[in-house]
Amino acid sequence: MMKAKPTFFESDHFQQFWNSGNGKELLDWAELRPDINRFEKFAHLFHQVDEDGDDAVKDTYLKLPYHEASALVKKYSQTPVTDSDEAPESIRKMFLQMQEIPNWFDENLANKGARFCMRTGTNALIILRDFTLMGGYDFGYLNKPLIFTGALKKGAVKRLKDTLEFWVHVTRENALKVNSDAYQLIVRTRLMHSYARLTINKKAENWNAEKWGEPINHWDMIATYTGFSLVFMQGLKKLGIKISEEEERGVFHLWKYVGYLLGIPAENLPENKREATEQLYLWSSTQDKADGDSAQLAKALLDENLTNTIYPFQFQRKLLLRLHQSMNRFLLDQEVNDRLKIPQVSFPSFFPKIVIRANRISERIFDIKKPDGYQKLVDFGNKNQMKVLDDYIKHTPKDFHY
């Protein structure tokens, strides 16, 4: 059996990130001095995948006409599955796992994480795009499934809409109940991951499992959702957002449950910034730095500003592109920006400083230390996030399916 190795532990890009870049900032925040010798504890996750999801896809999308498979999945996403249902055994097994609420899940704590995500408003969307997503492209191997499934050909607009739709729906208060809209979206995402993995393993003759792990493996998945928790909060701190210990715990708990619903073994999902930082540190030692594919993905994400039709005029789109480039340059390490070939901009900190100042003023105006002020900011942030999502849904082609 293939075994993951910390191949890039001594590489310049790994050492730079963790000794002087954003990685060092994470280590200081988590008060962690990681030990590479703990790599073996998690190494098996590099070749471990969601077998239940894969089996469900084999019995639906790979066996039935698309509309029949979709109807079957939709039926059991919307209504509880029982042992006596006539659905394929694989479908029953996956849905029964998802319907079983684990003893460790605390809905109140997850809701605190959701309320934090909402109250950060458009700041959250900036960080998700310009720090989490763009920064993730610097991990050269993590992005290989996107390349092998033709994500570049489909364009960044669709990918952004899908990511935004997923994030917004799962981060609303009380959103993760069985058969809810968010739950149904998680089901589709889980099966999409399995479909992509099975397709890659069947058709991609040059997939290098020894170097890249299994496509969309559990360790890559954990790293991805660490981007939605640990790295997400790191980015918000850079924009002047204050985070309480309760909010921090809530965000990690929320994403632990989302990860569980997506088929990741709960015992491997981080519960706090120390665990998350350690896993990210160890996992990143398996990742080469950005390559040509990474730079293409970064360019596609930037070009999305110019091709998206949300803003009708070209000067508006060019201004938006400039703002996102400024955020990239402000948030990401210089070496990462350079590897991803993100253009230099004049006065890159000008726009970020305006955002930071606006956040400080906002926290004073709403007085988030008071419950009514906090709630007003949650409602305001939620409204803004839903508006952006609505715009993306209206301006994204609808003729795609997995």
TrEMBL record:
Residues 141-343 form the ER-bound oxygenase mpaB/mpaB'/Rubber oxygenase catalytic domain. Pfam families: MPAB_Lcp_cat. This is DUF2236 domain-containing protein. It comes from Chryseobacterium suipulveris.
